[in-house]
């Protein structure tokens, strides 16, 4: 998977740095502010399609983007959450052209929709002199669904689900998860738990239950892209109302046929592993 950047990168870094420095000096004040005035979310939606959809739906491109926008609430947290979403949406353009220029427009969803359609238009232009555009590349589709998973004051978690088809043997899909502290700081796994090695061991136990095809076999023998026999933690981990969600995207630890894997470690399972300030 490709990673994401953001418009106004320098400004974004300065904003997050200043917000973090302000609230890190008094984390209790940030927590109190987040609990006293919790974030509210509203869903923003964009739907676009290429001109060809009006006459021939088999050779057109369609875009549907629904994403959460944080409103009200504590300023540093709200700004950090919204910046993260805009950053991820804008950088999705890199999935369709790794050389994409990520500037232009103020709204990342509008930018992404326009860019996706323009890439499809360029493709159709390339086939303009051909007798027929190959069916495998004629129809494109992009769908993004974003939502808050947790908004407790102690932590805020977001999920973005991405699906797209731009030709080929199969569509692509993946999720992006991120948790934030009450001061707006993005939380890493080590921020949420006290022992990452113990978490890995617990995650592997649950992973084997979810993926019955793995069973008791050594992970490498199960066809996973893993050296040794210790399951790594996924790139996407977030707190939810029920526990800690670990999500392995397709290709992250195995071939496409292995699929994606969601592992939920419930709060009662985590016990002392979870940092006390994030316990429900």
Automatic annotation (TrEMBL):
Residues 57-172 form the Deacetylase PdaC domain. Pfam families: DUF3298, PdaC. Coiled coil: none annotated. Keywords: Signal. It comes from the Bacteria. Residues 199-268 form the DUF3298 domain. Residues 1-20 form the signal peptide. The keyword Plastid does not apply. This is DUF3298 domain-containing protein. It comes from Pontibacter chinhatensis. The lineage of its organism: Bacteria, Pseudomonadati, Bacteroidota, Cytophagia, Cytophagales.
